[in-house]
Write a structure and sequence with these properties.
Blueprint (H helix, E strand, L loop, with lengths): L1 E10 L6 H5 L15 E2 L20 E4 L14 E7 L3 E9 L24 E5 L8 E7 L5 E7 L6 E2 L6
Parallel strand pairs: 2-4
Antiparallel strand pairs: 1-5, 3-4, 4-5, 6-7, 7-8, 8-9
């Protein structure tokens, strides 16, 4: 069975210019997988409808590995696509699953702490690639529960829920 999570809109983080990025020495990330987000001229309602014009030319990547990248699980693979505007980044997930493990009976409009303990799709955005230990994380569950975090692994605690993705 394939479940599609609604597309998600995040406020766009300001990234370094291309020339600055090219000068950054190679960092050690767990994966070298990349997704190129296509530009959209207009913002749109993020409602899980992948047939919208803004998604037509979006490239996607598919993965089926665990966090280590060593074990593969094709039966629960995930495909993700992204587009961006001047103010937002939009992410669309297509997720396979056998059974869902979600928090039930809660208000999806309220940020859900420890959402990562259930089934979620996660986005990790790093506007400063030279700072591997500092990035922004957004999680969304199939029932639209969500949490956004600023992560700085050089601090304690390292996860700051006061950051707001918009």
């Amino acid at each position: 069975m394939i479940g599609a999570l609604a597309g998600t809109a995040l406020t766009l983080l300001r990234f370094s210019s291309t020339s600055q990025i090219a000068a950054i020495p190679q960092q050690s990330y767990a994966s070298d997988m990349q997704l190129q987000a296509k530009r959209s001229a207009v913002d749109f309602v993020s409602d899980g409808d992948a047939s919208k014009p803004s998604w037509r030319h979006a490239k996607s990547v598919e993965f089926d590995n665990d966090a280590s990248g060593k074990s593969h699980y094709p039966e629960i693979s995930t495909r993700v696509a992204s587009v961006w505007t001047e103010t937002h980044i939009y992410i669309f997930f297509w997720c396979r699953y056998d059974a869902l493990n979600v928090y039930r009976g809660e208000d999806a409009a309220v940020e859900r702490w420890q959402l990562w303990d259930r089934d979620v799709a996660e986005v990790f955005l790093n506007p400063q690639p030279e700072r591997v230990s500092h990035y922004y994380e957004f999680e969304v569950a199939p029932n639209n529960q969500w949490i956004d975090l600023e992560i700085d692994k050089t601090k304690e605690p390292f996860n700051d829920a006061s950051w707001n993705s918009g």
